[in-house]
Amino acid sequence: MLTLRRVLSINRKQIVKQSTVKLTVHRTSTLGNNCYQFHLSRSLCNESSSSLAKISQRRLLRINNSVLNKTPCRQISPTVALLIRPLTRIGALLFGRFFRRWWAKKTPEEKKLYMDWVSKQRQKIYGALGFFMAILFMFYIMNIEVDPLTGRSRFIIMTSNQQKVLGRLTFENYLENFKDFIVPTTHPAYKRLLRVVNRILEANQDLPQVKEREWTLSVIDKDDPNAYVLPGGNIFVHIGSLKLTENDDQLAIIIAHEVAHVLLQHPIEQISRNFLQDILMAVPIAVVWALFPDLLALLLQAFGINMFDILVTYPYSRKLENEADNIGLQLAAKACYDVRHAVVLWGIMRTLAELKINPEVVPWLNTHPNHEDREKNLTKQLPLAIATRQQSRCPMLNPADPIKYFNSLSLKEREIKMERRGFVQSKIML
After folding, report:
1. 258 given a catalytic annotation
2. Which pLDDT tens digit goes with each residue over 186-217?
3. What DSSP designation does 312 have?
4. Are both 199 and 324 inside the same structural domain?
5. What residues does the Peptidase M48 domain cover (predicted)?
6. Are 346 and 304 within 8 A, CB to CB?
7. Is 111 part of any domain?
C-alpha cells in the first residue's frame, strides 16, 4: 500500500513545505526458516512472519534505532565523544607548550630540585599512570560487545538512546545543508530509489537491526555519485549515483553497502575507537610539545598522526569497508538482486580510475580498499551470496553473466557506455 501525503515540516529557522512518502509493504509470502551464513559469523535464521517496512522523507522525526546490546556502564554523551578529538589534541598541545616555557624560565638550581622531587616520587607517579591505564582498560573491556551479524567483537561507548540523539542531530544537520537540493517525492529518481530501498529493507525484516528502525530516504540533486546512511537509518543518495550505475542491481549494491554500515554500527564504532585513541594520544602529543620548539613539535605531531593513520586507522577502516561489502552483498542477495553486478560495479569504478576520471586509490594511504581489491573480494563472496539468493527462493539468475560481458568490453567501449548514461562527459565534437 503506497500512501502519498503533504506535510508541513518545521525547521529551526524556517518552515519548509516538504513532500512525504510513507510506504507500507505487507509480505504475502515468507521465506520459511532458511538460514543465512554471513561472513565470519554464526548462521542467522529468519522466522516466517509478515513484515513492515516504512520509508519516509521529512524534516523532523523520531528515529527508532535498534538495540543490539544495552550496556548500563556507557555514559559518554555524543557531544563529548565528538569533541574529545579537538579538545585532547589542543589541550595536550597547550599543556606541553606551557610546560616547556615554564621550565625554560627556571634556574639550574630550581630544575635540580624539581628533578630530585620527581625522582623521589617516581613510584607514586608510575602508580598513578598505571591506575589510569587500568581504569581505561576496564572501561574498554566493559564496553566490548559482539556484533550479531559478523560475530566480531567491537568497542561501543554510546547507549542506544545516545545513538538516537546523535542520529537525530546528524539528520537535521544534513537536511539543513541539503535543503535546496532535496528532490520532491514525485521525481523519477526518487521513485526509482524508493523502490530499490524498500525492496532491500522488506527482504531483510528478519534482522532486528532493520526492523526496529524507521528508515528515511532523501534524494539529493547533485551529480557526484555518492550515497550514505546516517546512524539513525536516514538514507541519502545523490542523483549522480543513478548515472554511474547501469541498472537497479548495481544501485542496490551501493545502497545495501551503505545500509550494512549502519546495521554493523560502523559509524558509532569509529566514534568510539577515536575517543579511546585520542585519550591515549594526548600524552605523546604533550611530551612532544614539552621537549621541542613549536615548529619542530608541529612537524613531529603531524608526522606521528599520519604514521598512526597509515599503520592503524586506515587498515581498520579498510576492514570495515570490506565487512560492509560482504554484509551488503548478503542484503542484496536476500532482496533477489543479481549480486554478480557487485563485481561489475567495482569494475566500473576501476575503469573510471583507468580513464583518469577518478583518482587511483592507493590502499595504504586511504580509508577504502582500491577498486581492484574490492572486485576480487566480492568475487570470492559471490558463491555464498548466490547460495543465499537461492535460499531466499529468488528467480534464477540470467544465464548471461554480466561479469564476463563487462570484462569482454574494451576500455573505450566502457567509456562509451558511461557517456550514454550521462556520467562521463562526451568527447564527441558537434
Report:
1. yes
2. 999 999 999 999 999 999 999 999 999 999 99
3. I
4. yes
5. 194-380
6. no
7. yes
Q: Are residues 250 and 352 in the same domain?
A: yes
- The domain total for the chain is 2
pLDDT at 360: 78
82's grid cell:
565528538
Q: Strand runs (DSSP E) across 71-164, as ranges?
A: 144-146, 153-155
Please indicate, yes or no, whether residues 331 and 394 belong to a single structural domain of this protein.
yes
372 domain residue, yes or no: yes
| Stretch 6-30: mean pLDDT | 36
- Note the pLDDT of residue 74: 52
202 & 281 share domain: no
Are residues 129 and 196 both part of a single domain?
Answer: no
Query: Given 145, 172, 176, 258, which residue is catalytic?
Result: 258
CA–CA–CA angle 38, 41, 46 (5° rounding): 55
pLDDT tops 70 at residue 5: no
State in Å, rounded, how far the first CA of the chain is from the last one: 48
Evaluate whether residue 32 is within a structural domain.
yes
DSSP state of 182: B
Structural contact between residues 370 and 362, judged by C-beta atoms closer than 8 angstroms: yes
Q: In terms of domains, do 242 and 94 share one?
A: no
Quick one: 258 and 115 in the same domain?
A: no
Q: Which of 56-60, 90-94, 251-255, 351-355 has the highest mean pLDDT?
A: 251-255
What residue type is 370 in one-letter code? N
280 and 263 share a domain?
no
Q: Which of 227, 111, 213 is nearest to 167 (CA)?
A: 213
pLDDT given at position 35:
34
Polymer length in residues for the chain: 430
Closest CA to 31 of 371, 301, 392, 419: 392
Range of the domain at 37: 2-71+150-267+317-420
